[in-house]
Amino acid sequence: MASKRRRAENSTALPPSRPPPPLRMPKRQPVVVFAHGAGAPSSSDWMIHWKEMVTDALGAVEVVTFDYPYMSGGKRRAPPKAEKLVDYHLGVVKDAVAKHQGHPLVLMGKSMGSRISCMVATFEDVDVSAVICLGYPLKGVNGVVRDETLLQLKVPTMFVQGSKDGLCPLDKLESTRKKMTCKNELHVVDGGDHSLKIGKKHQESTGVNQHDAEMEAVKAIVHFFLNSSN
Asked: 45 φ, ψ to 5°?
């Protein structure tokens, strides 16, 4: 009886679950156009650091960085309205596309650069595979939520936001994301500020250091891009 019971139990056992199939890399390496924020040029340590991480993680054929005209000459000036920088940004994008024809185009930006990247992505004559926003400035200086551009997007868009970013409260971003019609995802850097930097006290209390948090963010970016490309 015991042997029969064992045979019966074995016959009804469910097969082991299979892991999900691995993501397939896109046929061509992406070209990334990476725009700086309002207060620092493309040569800043932050921009160089993120450029290197993204280049390695995505296997990009090139990560193009540039300075908006108001940054030229090394003088620090207040930026004009974002709308006035769109044409210049668009020109950089078209040059990158012409140089790397056939490669998927990713637009990425820090803060103001991410907002302008989203504006460029709404142009119909630019074929964008994905937009990556690092610290999107959802709130303007007067505190008003600036979501008009996001609601126009048709391109897969990812937000990488610090949980302590005053320019983008996560509850307001969540409300905006629900209204967006394009595919969109959010990766939160716990304890991160507008530049995704984590304070020392938070690192000590959680045991998560800056490097580990950045690596997790980069992994999320890669996963999002591959899901958007396949």
From this structure: -60, -40
CATH of domain 26-71+79-229: 3.40.50.1820
Query: What pTM was computed for the model?
Result: 0.87
**Residue ranges of the alpha helices (H) in 34-126?**
45-58, 86-99, 112-121
Over the stretch 39-98, which tens digit does the pLDDT of each residue have? Answer: 999 999 999 999 999 999 999 999 999 999 999 766 677 899 999 999 999 999 999 999
Buried-exposed string 18-27: b where 16+ CB fall within 10 A, e elsewhere:
eeeeeeeebe
> Is the Cβ–Cβ distance between 139 and 167 less than 8 Å?
yes
How far, in Å, CA of 162 to CA of 178, rounded? 19
Q: Distance between CA atoms of 77 and 70, rounded to whole angstroms?
A: 6
